[in-house]
């Protein structure tokens, strides 16, 4: 991508992440280095981004109509962010040439944030302690109310009073009509929104995400060669999320983790369902897929199913059957099955599967049509109709007894982690719901 033109007038409301088109009609607005990492975004006034050896942003210079500043980042050898320093010019008031260099000597104001595990310090003082499903700050506990994609939609305090409300467009930009956006920064997909000097990008650990995708090439791009290496969630954020910036969590990783196993058809249920060394020594195609379904938590445990049993399972549960493949689908023939780990033109797919006697389970080296893979009856490609944050089937408003987690209904999916308030009913079709929580109804 080199240029974006926004025909809509700027929205100048508090908390708006409206696209800023500071360089309308000026030609190339985005530039990249030899690694494919973005080095300039002139629409935001980003004149320079430098990267470390892990391809993570090290310095970001920003100079536009409202701010002149530099963000500096420090990481561990494993790529874990340890420190972020925001520097800015407090006396800045000009209409600069977009893309011009930042005057570093004028950046006299500084704010430093240190990340020590789940503890966050700001200017050497304790700012926030992150806990499962929320955080602790200034002597109070706060809890997230999440939607079906793991986005933090509402933050409530320990008295069930709402302290922050955020609504999102599909790729993570927030609506302007939100409340108290500075209360805490963990929002879309529970990722930190970095607003330092107007950066407005999400930190996904391995990569940064801007308005519609990532700023650097996917480190696993060679495994998804039919997709742009900058894409987010296969360009389908309503179905997939990408928790780290390295690839959607779905059945693909589970399948690839089971390649290299010897093939054998076994009838003993223990050998087909247990996780002992003996049980994992051999695997046929249906056991392979059954273990993928369990690893992705579509089934609670590994089920003893042959291909006919898999077909029956898909038909009796909330699965879509299609003749058009998507990555992560279960391909099912009469007598064979596998996981789709690549899709190409002409209906050709790459399958990861247990292949037959004398062969090891593997990802196919060549994309083929279902008929080329196996003559005979092909039942189709199956996928869950509803997927949650990492590809698992949604529980649809049922309590998960293994954790303090509620899943919302289809119309307005909401989850509550931590203490569990009783949520009001929401009429079907509502994508957003104003939720009022009575503290007297809060379960202790």
Automatic annotation (TrEMBL):
Annotated InterPro entries: CHAP_dom, Papain-like_cys_pep_sf, Rhs_assc_core, T6SS_VgrG/RHS
Chain ranges of the Peptidase C51 domain: 281-353
PANTHER family in the record: PROTEIN RHSA-RELATED (PTHR32305:SF15), PTHR32305
In terms of NCBIfam families, this protein maps to: Rhs_assc_core
Name of the protein: RHS repeat-associated protein
């Amino acid at each position: 991508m080199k240029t974006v033109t926004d025909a809509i007038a700027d929205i100048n409301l508090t908390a708006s992440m409206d696209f800023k088109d500071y360089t309308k009609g000026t030609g190339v607005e985005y530039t990249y280095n030899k690694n494919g990492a973005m080095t300039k975004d002139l629409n935001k006034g980003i004149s320079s981004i430098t990267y470390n050896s892990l391809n993570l942003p090290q310095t970001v210079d920003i100079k536009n109509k409202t701010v002149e500043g530099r963000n500096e980042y420090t990481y561990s050898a494993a790529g874990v962010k340890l420190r972020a320093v925001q520097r800015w010019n407090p006396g800045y008031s000009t209409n600069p040439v977009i893309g011009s260099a930042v005057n570093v000597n004028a950046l006299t104001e500084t704010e430093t944030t240190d990340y020590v595990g789940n503890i966050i310090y700001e200017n050497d003082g304790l700012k926030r302690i992150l806990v499962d499903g929320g955080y602790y700050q200034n002597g109070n506990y706060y809890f997230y109310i999440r939607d079906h994609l793991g986005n933090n939609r509402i933050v409530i305090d320990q008295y069930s009073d709402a302290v922050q409300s955020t609504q999102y467009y599909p790729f993570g930009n927030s609506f302007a009509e939100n409340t108290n956006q500075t209360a805490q920064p963990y929002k879309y997909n529970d990722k930190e929104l970095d607003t330092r000097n107007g950066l407005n990008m999400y930190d996904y650990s391995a990569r940064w995400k801007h308005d519609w995708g990532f700023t650097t090439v996917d480190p696993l791009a060679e495994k998804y060669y039919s997709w742009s290496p900058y894409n987010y969630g296969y360009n389908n954020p309503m179905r997939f999320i990408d928790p780290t910036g390295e690839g959607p969590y779905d059945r693909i990783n589970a399948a690839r983790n089971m390649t290299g196993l010897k093939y054998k058809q076994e009838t003993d249920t223990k050998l087909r369902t247990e996780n002992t060394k003996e049980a994992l020594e051999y695997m046929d195609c249906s056991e392979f897929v059954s273990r993928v379904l369990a690893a992705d938590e579509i089934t609670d445990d590994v089920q003893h199913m042959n291909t006919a049993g898999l077909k029956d399972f898909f038909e009796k549960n909330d699965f879509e059957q299609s003749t058009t493949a998507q990555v992560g689908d279960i391909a099912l023939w009469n007598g064979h099955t596998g996981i789709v780990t690549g899709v190409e033109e002409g209906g050709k797919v790459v399958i990861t599967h247990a292949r037959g006697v004398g062969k090891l389970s593997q990802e196919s080296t060549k994309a083929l049509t279902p008929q080329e893979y196996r003559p005979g009856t092909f039942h189709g490609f199956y996928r869950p109709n509803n997927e949650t944050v990492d590809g698992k089937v949604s529980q649809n408003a049922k309590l998960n007894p293994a954790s303090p987690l509620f899943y919302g209904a289809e119309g307005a999916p909401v989850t509550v982690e931590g203490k569990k308030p009783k949520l009001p009913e929401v009429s079907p079709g509502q994508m957003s719901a104003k939720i009022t929580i009575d503290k007297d109804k809060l379960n202790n």
